[in-house]
Design a protein that fits this description.
Length: about 750
């Protein structure tokens, strides 16, 4: 069930609502659309959580159907498939800013006056870009502004006038009650939840929002202008919250937060939303179905169950989606934002989010199961479902796999890139499950999947890898249990890993927490030389070097794609490991291409290895030792081995560090200085290697240190070993102190 991970491209600019929506890399959806569909085919997104998925499918001339009960997501989809020009956005914002505000002022002037301040240097009047608040003091303590007289930007402490101006906007004034009433009915049970939502905004921001909403209703705008202003306002609603995290999941504030000038947030949204104008390809569902050669997009505002009843059976070639993970913050804010912009009834189907405070993974599995089961009816017999998971933590992955199996999808292939928590899964429609197997059957599958994963990777691996592999193997064996969709596989996994004769849990203080530390097989892995039994990190290094060895410039994306094709499914290496290998052997030119370092060309490195071995022999002779002509080189005294030197051009250190100890007193790995960073990376990710170093059985020596010692005429036997350890890896002290529970990039 191996699937080659598709790396995609990082977005070239920030995305609308990017801190809430699934961060699917650009190009990933397009890859699956190209491979699994043809122009004119229908692509169904049952969740609408990543607008770039639909935008990429539409750009490839497919017909795209997206279901979402969340009107904010539908707005994000509209902006993704039909981005406006910067000129259009500016015109819409100007129309809003020119609306009459209080005391005969323009609305823009009225809002900007809420943030009026004085320059701390020249005392000229100006407008603050933002304030930093101390929540415990309940007042702004710092301000950021540009002074038109003496320049900037500047940061300064707030003064008494700043604090007095902020205090004019009370936490429960008319604007506050207007927005609460706009969100829920006064007697509605969700009122306390609406108050929680408003609590993530500073009072002055709420006043600015209320002022804008009052004027927005009075403006005579066409549908396009309202679409653009709605998007600008949602972007500003997002930018001006005081939520604590870059990707918040709950409504929580930090002790210190930034209050952003609301009008400046609107202006900042111009660049966020502007794009290359595209034709309006939106269509009704009937028109989309009636024109198979016309690319079109239909955003469905109701439930997927309703949509599935309108779609002809087996009409969709591909279900392609980024399933949502629970996000109380975004769902609650979406309900409020929609109500503010379009009235409470606009989000009626979504308003249940205002009443729910906790979302566990069992609830989420049931929530995913229903739309997946409805979509199954619309999927063609030879069609595929591809799920793209960002933030693929174990509970989220288990919820999706359980829901998909329960909705009669057969898993064909999967890949998990653990260090970036991204997963890609491909399913085919399957027959209904024929009843749940016995508990031992699920347990055996869980045990076999964990063993297979660890044997194939041949190195300690994080819980996320083990958990994902077990769930991919066992999810389809359990049948759908709506009450406890996750318990059977989770129990089987826990029972399997409790067998200490088969598995070892590397991690101090990790008892009772399977997610801490790393997992490995208790019996270990045979010595290197047996092909697949080489640690994954060493195999990835060799593969990267092979792809660079042609000497031609290499595109980073192409190399990542080739490496992931060579190591699919459970072998998918972390991006950090691949990049550490690339940076160790190659340099990047101004065009962004990578090319093998001249000193790492095969001929140059071979010559240097012979040179270092000769220099070690000369060093041995100077100190009165006899050096062998072998590799590794041994230094003898009186016929007995004293030192062993393994001279490497690579960072493949595991065969030496994991080998049984020899008769020599000390052992040394001699590596090029350019390989030091990759050696450190491997030590961080494998506690077995760190343990070998920490026990002082091995010392890492750089080529340059050997040459410096040979040039040192004062070197003696007494100073030999200190000199060999005189140029350690930069991170060696920290690595030696790391407990086995610390884990690096996988």
């Amino acid at each position: 069930m191996s699937l080659a991970f598709i790396p995609g491209f990082a977005p070239s600019s920030p995305r609308f609502l990017g801190r809430f929506l699934s961060p699917i890399a650009d190009g990933v959806a397009a890859h699956y659309v190209r491979v699994l569909t043809r122009p004119g085919d229908i692509v169904l997104d049952p969740f609408g959580q990543a607008p770039n998925v639909a935008a990429e499918a539409l750009s490839l001339d497919r017909r795209v159907v997206v279901a979402s009960v969340n009107p904010i997501l539908r707005l994000a989809l509209s902006m993704a498939v039909r981005p406006p020009s910067l000129l259009e956005l500016k015109a819409a914002l100007t129309a809003l800013g020119d609306a009459a505000g209080g005391a005969g002022q323009r609305l823009e002037t009225q809002i900007q006056s809420m943030y009026e301040t004085e320059c701390a240097e020249c005392h000229a009047r100006t407008t603050a870009d933002s304030y930093v608040w101390d929540a415990e003091l309940g007042q702004p303590v710092e301000k950021h502004y540009v002074c038109l007289r003496c320049g900037g930007p500047r940061d300064a402490n707030t003064d008494e006038a700043d604090r007095a101006l902020a205090a004019r906007f009370g936490p429960a004034g008319p604007d506050y009650h207007f927005l609460v009433g706009r969100t829920v009915h006064l007697d509605e049970p969700g009122r306390d939840r609406a108050e929680d939502i408003l609590a993530v905004y500073p009072p002055r921001t709420l006043a600015a929002i209320a002022s804008v909403l009052h004027k927005l209703e009075a403006l005579d705008l066409d549908g396009e202008a309202r679409r653009l202003l709605s998007a600008l306002l949602v972007a500003a609603f997002d930018a001006t919250t005081a939520l604590v995290q870059d990707r918040p999941k709950v409504l929580a504030l930090s002790r210190r937060y930034r209050e952003v000038n609301f009008w400046y947030a609107l202006e900042g949204a111009l660049g966020l939303l502007a794009g290359a104008p595209a034709p309006d390809r939106s269509a009704t569902l009937d028109n989309l179905l009636a024109n198979p050669v016309q690319p079109a997009n239909y955003p469905h505002a109701g439930s997927l169950r309703d949509l599935a009843e309108r779609l002809p059976p087996a009409s969709c070639t591909l279900i392609l989606s980024a399933p949502p993970r629970p996000n109380q913050a975004f769902w609650s804010l979406s309900a409020a934002w929609a109500a503010w912009l379009w009235g409470r009834e606009s989000a009626e189907a979504f308003r249940a989010t205002l009443h729910r405070r906790r979302y566990d993974w069992t609830w989420h599995a049931r929530a995913l199961h229903q739309p997946l089961a409805a979509a199954r009816r619309a999927l063609a017999g030879e069609g595929r479902m591809v799920c793209l998971l960002a933030e693929a933590e174990p509970g989220f992955s288990a919820s999706l796999l359980s829901a998909a199996a329960g909705a009669d999808y057969n898993l064909l292939g999967w890949a998990l890139r653990a260090d970036t928590a991204e997963a890609q899964l491909e399913f085919a429609p399957g027959p209904p499950a024929s009843g749940a197997p016995s508990r031992p059957g699920v347990g055996l599958a869980a045990r076999a999947a964990a063993i297979e994963l660890l044997r194939s990777r041949a190195e300690p691996s994080p819980w996320s890898n083990v958990h994902f592999a077990v769930w991919c193997r066992a999810a389809g064996l359990t049948g759908w249990d709506a009450d406890e969709p996750l318990s059977r596989v989770n129990t089987a996994l826990q029972e399997a890993l409790a067998d200490e004769t088969t598995f070892q849990h590397l991690g101090e203080g990790s008892a009772g927490d399977p997610a801490a530390g790393l997992w490995f097989l208790a019996e270990g892995i045979p010595s290197p030389g047996g092909g697949i039994f080489r640690p994954l990190a060493d195999r990835v290094e060799a593969d990267v070097l092979r792809r660079l060895s042609g000497g031609e410039p290499v595109d980073e994306y192409d190399l990542l794609s080739q490496v992931y094709a060579a190591f699919p499914g459970p072998l998918t290496p972390g991006r950090g490991l691949v990049m550490a290998c690339l940076q160790s052997y190659a340099v990047q030119d101004q065009a962004g291409f990578w090319q093998l370092r001249p000193e790492d060309a095969a001929g140059a490195r071979s010559q240097e290895l012979h040179s270092i071995l000769a220099e070690l022999r000369a060093l041995a002779g100077r100190q009165g030792y006899e050096a062998t002509a072998t590799q590794p080189q041994e230094w003898h005294e009186g016929g007995q081995p004293v030192y062993r030197f393994a001279v490497l051009s690579s960072a493949v250190i595991s065969p030496f560090l994991l080998a049984p100890p020899g008769a020599e007193r000390r052992r040394f790995l001699v590596v090029p200085g350019g390989r030091a960073g990759l050696v450190e990376h491997k030590l961080r990710r494998d506690p077995r290697l760190r343990l070998a170093i920490s026990r002082s059985a091995w010392t890492i020596v750089k080529f340059r240190q050997v040459r410096a010692m040979l040039a040192d005429a004062s070197l003696t036997r007494a100073t030999l070993e200190p000199a060999l350890a005189g140029d350690p890896l930069e991170a060696l002290p920290q690595l030696q102190q790391m407990s086995l529970s610390d884990r690096g990039d996988q």
